[in-house]
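Figure S4 source data
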Amino acid sequence: MSRSSVLPPGIHTLRRRLANRLTRLLLGRSPEAVSTPLPTTGIYRILICHTSHSLGNTLLLTPLLQELEQTYPAAEIDILTRSPVAQDIYGHYFNLRRLLPMPAHAVGHPWQALRNLRRMRAVHYDLAIDPEPQSQTSRLLLRLAHATWKLGFSGPRKQGHVTHDVAIPGDLSSKGRLPVYLLRTASGRSDAAYPPPDLRLSALEKSEGRLALERVLAAHQAPRKRGVIGIFANATGPKLMPPAWWDAFLLALEPIREHYSLLEIVPASGQSMLGSRYPAYYSSDLRKLASMLTSLDALITLDAGVMHLACASPVPTLSIFTVTSTAEWGPYGKHDIIVQALDRPPARVAEDVLAACMARTSSA
């Protein structure tokens, strides 16, 4: 438990107030909010301040990039980011101008942080966006930017006004949809469908992924079947399921092998999570891994970054959720399925997965 977590609630409030006053001293007062919608013309330079650095959060910003391409097709986008894989994920978006990488801990790397903050402040943007509903760091970075219009969520954890603020909706918590909702609400739009995450894989990358899968199956002399289903068995913290859980799950899933070959996706550790019982594929390169995933008929996965990578590739994803919120983190592509596993026997979870796979077989 961190020291800050045991401080009285009043101390947290006092610290936020002091931080806000210090920010005002350094930056001046926040811009005044306006009541008119964001303009849909005249915006050519856009900045996104995104401080979340996990793989999943990085991928879940891509729906906003797609929305910006549709709303401002002639604009260039800069992204201030702490993600170490931002180039791999955003680099194929045509409207991307540059990434401004920030260290995960600016105190430990002050010169890198100051250099990219200086690069950011050298540009006067037409629109700067803080897409995060909770992070105060992203709001501080937004306030440092020079921009005609500043857009962000309003809420108790967001200190510092913007020209266009949007209340956090009570009926929407999806990490991928919220930034799109923010832009649409501020610009007076209300489209029904939300774009899913997209890695923008090229036809060449997908072709190379198919060849990689064929080589793996040939090396293991796997018999030809109707298709291939991948399994990713790694996750962090309480989302990780023990080997005994997987043993029972895979035993109940065994009938699926009448139609499909199974392929393990090996995690970044380079160690099989399933006892090396199936052919396996490993790559430390996110785009190469995603390219191979596109050749699968489906991926069975725990709630992890690879789940979001599969959804952005895209490949039909059967996502097993335990302790995390499906409303916040669940995939929402038209071929993605969420399976609840909390407090359920692994055999019952496997039955749901098996039924979903058989339904795909009958409709194929």
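Figure S5 source data
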Amino acid sequence: MSSALLTRARAGDHDAFAELVDPFRRELHLHCYRLLGRLADAEDAVQETLLAAWRGLPEFEGRASVRGWLYRIATHRCLNAIRDAGRRPPLAPMPPFEAPEPTRHHEVPWVQPYPDTLLPEPAYLRREQVELAFVEALQQLPPRQTAALVLCDVLGFPLAEAAELLDTTPTAVKGTLQRARSTLRTRATQPPPADSPAERDLTERFAAAFVADDVDAVIALLTDDAWLAMPPAPHQYVGTAAIAGFLRASAGWRAGRRYTRLPARANGQPAFALYLDAAPAGLVVLTLDGDHVAGVTRFMDDTLYPWFGLPASHR
């Protein structure tokens, strides 16, 4: 960091401040998303972080890195947001048809997908640390455990520095981290390499069968213990029989109307946007395992489309 740049920023130079913080904006947004699980909440937290940083420049002496300073502000903003707002799930949409009884209920229906176009440079990321299942698992930890695990295990902050960021001691962070690691549970999958021919082929075959209501073809591409979730609705269907029952009920309600689709990517995973009668009908994110689909998460939230650069209608 240039001391001259910091001096200019302290003197009220907005361009110097932007030059100081802009290199970290993307990774801060992803950090806030990991802690909060929602795109707009992450955006709000980043804006509050940058405003607090601008106002706090006179107290920043430059002994710590700008990156660490910003992460400290952002982490506390996110923890405050969780404490103030709680984990209230959004209003669950009701299916317009008689749906089968779900297998189980989704524990974190507020989580949204993250557009790959917003991710920082791949060199900063490991795929398993942005995948949807990982973000959902983080939401089920106590907030300070989530913060400690993300700071240390994902971002690589040393224990002592993470303690400074969290205003606590290294011993306390170590204990919090151990509890988080012992609790965190994600299902291990072996997806094809991102954007590989194998990934593209499996995604295309599944999407084509899905929009054509070819339930048998969809089921043939699923693992035996695959699941279907539809956030913000809490319903989940687990296993091929349960998923087939739901898909057939849904297809029957549409009475022959067919979807159209557009490709997308979310959380480092393949995805596609659905349209029914040209209107948005859900963003589908696929969890792949080998040459099968292990999970289908269909986000029933039209506000997601602008985040992914998707049009408001498509025929």
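Residues 197-307 form a domain with the Nuclear Transport Factor 2; Chain: A, fold (CATH 3.10.450.50). DSSP finds 13 helices and seven strands in the chain.
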